[in-house]
Amino acid sequence: MDGCWQLLLLLCLSAVAEFGEANDAPLVKRMTNKLLQVIPPNDKSNVSILVIKGNQITLNETDQQALATYTTLVELYLDENRVTTVPAKFFSGLSHLRVLSLSRNNISSLDPEAFSRLDVLEKLDLSNNKLTDLCDKTFINLKSLKILNLQENPWNCSCSLLDTIGRMKEANISFGGPNVTCASPAEQKGRNLLDSINLCSTSSPVIVHTDHKSPTPPVTSQQFKEINNTPTTTSTSHNCTVSKRQKPLSGHTWKFTACIAALGLTTCILILTAIKGPSCYKSFHNYRHRRLVEDDEEEGQDTMPTETGGCESQQTFTFEELSHRIQEQDEEDGYFEDPYIKRMEDSEEEIQ
């Protein structure tokens, strides 16, 4: 009996051990090529590896809320989706995350706090995207980062990017592969990004050796963080858009200013015309009306007969008409008679 109880106890302990090992094993959740538009929430408590490849994920607010339910997640693969940008603190709820892959998306920009609170992240894959620049703040808090894949991106090898890459290289971060090449400027197109680090004269103080007898020791991740937090006078970028602001201005600024001034002057003239035009037209119309009234009044005064002048005009008209009639009669009779004499004779006849 004692032997049976001992055997049964051994079997129970073995079963418990196997159950514990099964629970400790990483649980993988795969959702590949499912045409998913959002990340589904966690339906199990111990998912360690989440694979969501070949879908239509864009990393919106719904995706962030869903990822917050994967509290035990260690590896996250979001390859071949439709991600264009990574918002600030998007993965902040995944405090145990060690591997993050965002390869083969359309990422063109990263928020400076995109990977905030990922203190144990060791590998970050940003290959095959559309990134042209990186900023220091994006990687300050990645204390455990060892591998950063940057292949197949159209990098703009400006001094700000090269300085950032140089400090990260001194922090013993590997950039994974020889295909990290420059796409611009034209003189550096096709050149290896790591080989272009020393081309800029405004390099970081941590990689410049002022004393050859005592070279600067390798920079650790903690020192990399402190250096980036310390203000310097170099041209190191402090955000992702500094390279765009440092773009030299063209030599035709005066032409642009002249165009703006001409446009402003034209606009002012149009506004004044629109405001003063109706009143000017009304004034002109009233002026013409007054002139016409004045002309009519002057013509009326010229043709209006006075008390004496009217009679004289009427008498003159009567005399001229009488003379004209008498002349016509004389011409018809064939002889001329003086109308004055005729009038005198008529007067004498009336007296008699």
From TrEMBL:
UniProt domain LRRCT: residue ranges: 153-201
Biological processes, Gene Ontology terms: positive regulation of non-canonical NF-kappaB signal transduction
SMART domains the UniProt entry points to: LRR_TYP (SM00369), LRRCT (SM00082)
Protein name per its UniProtKB record: LRRCT domain-containing protein
Leader peptide range in chain numbering: 1-22
Molecular function as annotated in GO: signaling receptor activity
GO annotation, cellular component aspect: plasma membrane
Keywords from the named record: Leucine-rich repeat, Repeat, Signal
Taxonomic classification: Eukaryota, Metazoa, Chordata, Craniata, Vertebrata
Polar residues composition bias: residue spans: 303-313
Any one Pfam family match given in the protein's UniProt record, by short name: LRR_8
Region (Disordered): 294-313, 327-352
